[in-house]
Amino acid sequence: SLLIAIYIYLMSNFEYLLSPIDNIKGVGKKTLNSFNKKKIFTIFDLLWHLPISKIETAEDTEIKDLQVGKNYNIKVTPIKYNFPRIRNLPNKVICEKNGVKLDCIFFNSYEGYIKKLLPLNEEIIIHGKANNFRNKFQFVNPTTKNSSNLNIINEESKYSLSDGLTLNKYNQVINNVLQNLPELEEWLPQSISSLFNHVKWKECVIKIHKEEITKIRSTKYFKRLVFDEIFANFLLSSNIRSKIKKIKKKNKILNYQHQSKIIDSLKFKLTIDQISSLKSINKDMGSKQKMFRLLQGDVGSGKTIVSVIAALNVIKAGYQVAIMAPTEILAIQHYKFILENFNKYCNPEILTGKTEYKKRKKILSDLLNNKIDILIGTHSLYQEKITYFNLGLIIIDEQHKFGVNQRKKLSDKGGKDCDVLVMSATPIPRTMMMTIYGDMDISLIKSKPKNRQPIKTYSKNETKINEVINFIKGEISKENQVFWVCPLIKESKKMDHQSATEKYKYLSKIFKNKVDIIHGAMGKEEKDNVLKKFNDRNIDILVSTTVIEVGIDFPNANVIVIENSNKYGLSQLHQLRGRVGRGNKESTCILMFKAGLSENARKRITILKNSNDGFKIAEEDLKIRGYGDILGFKQSGLKKYNLADPIQHEDLFKVAEKEIKKIEKNNIKIKNYNKLIKLYDKVAVINDTI
Ligand code: ADP
Ligand code: MG
Question: What would the mean pLDDT of 269-283 be, rounded to a whole number?
């Protein structure tokens, strides 16, 4: 029973960290609100808001020697109250020292409190920051100290505050928390905790709040906490993955002769990486475990065909398939690709948000009756209530913006017999791989098809548009085609369309009826038409907004002009550029910019000129922008680590990854890991809105 008592004690200590911040004495509704504004909800949250600097408190001094902005413990005698009883006017206590006066000013404080804090005619030590107002020194909302502890605290941590929080209040709260921090049982294995000299979690937390922050970052105390954060995040993903793996499904019986027939009918030979990815996918689908796999490969590496062969395999095995693309344009393209090349093997249909009611009804009933075996749509299919006859595979194309939680839901959707394949062209820096995709198995297409030539990238000041026009004329005379991508104007889709429309008019004057335009606001039929015209080479130039950024594939187009290129991030430019260089012709990307480039924009353009390798570009992007902003993950709500940073702590990410692999391989179960996960659960988890 003693053991039980100890257990309950430890447990309650652990729960203390997860309890809401207003459990702390002295935190009322107002303070709670201020903390919530800073995204601090639990005591645990509070721990990761580190002090921004130290404040030194100066020795007692004469009033005339006070320096504005410095903190003091100063011995004074309150001599007069001044409580104006008028709204918005603060209460005042006039104090004196050796014949010189200063004011103590109180906002939002009751008279009773003030009288207790500063009784008249008794010498007392006040603590606060010296201010000067109309030539008189004053202390705003000072605290008091008795002389016994005067010299103990002469250095204090300073935190960034939000509305309604004073430094005094903040310090009172954080000090209270640090005093009550529980001793947690060690969750790190010996081999890892030895990397940090076996310092304990609690000690580390106290250190990072009490020591100079610039100095603490390089110490074992800080690094241990960084490691905890990474490790917890990886463990969580790993848990999700093993949970998904435990789901037993009916194994799909695949027909490899059928597959060979399809592969033999292709106009090209699959690359080694395409074949090996396909093998892993087939192996997963043929197993009794649910597939949850990411197919990753740089733009143009040929992911589509891999997924389509997998889909045809599943259909042959007697199941239905759903394919989701991020844009309607891409959905149309996939649909046509399948319809034109593989209609012998399947019966495809397309469903998007714009499909009209009658057609939609027909499609839904055909799906239920197994008359459609492959449904292509936009990501919104994910939210629709569609009942399939027997869905066997969900393919999600170009999805780098789904987070762990969304993927988890996806894997649940479609029932237990449904495998999930996610495709992404977004190159993730090595260190971020586990953070972002730790819940999935991964197949990588590293090499591009052999016929590819590197894309030549140039930058051009927009005043030299005539040179660009001349270059295009030359390319068109060689039967080549051109994408012209128009400026991205933040927050305004309408404006985007406008600028694209203007450019369309401008180019039409030069190239007559060989130009057309496409943008997101057009209807499906319209888009369909334009894409067909471009595909049939009835037009030479396709003016567009960034809707063509992802996925679309016109191997005959070999020039892309990107206006206002300085407005895009590196990864986005790389994606856009990836619209060309998909056939065997030499391709060109022209990055146009306005004069007066920022240093970062200049850097980005240089990096692009020098590399066609998405992974290298992603690493550079990470260095320029920091990981929070890369890859469009900002929109996805990928929560930042509190302390960990993939560049600075690359070594720790590696250690954590190795440890996770070891745990998975040997099926190690450690009770304390659950505590770690529970504590850190919220870190780096992605929100749920698409
Ligand atoms: P992504 O990986 O960016 O989705 P796609 O799947 O759209 O790339 O493929 C890009 C282009 O490469 C397509 O035109 C496709 O037909 C072609 N392709 C795919 N695999 C090969 C290959 N092994 N050899 C030659 N061309 C290929
Ligand atoms: Mg693609």
Answer: 96
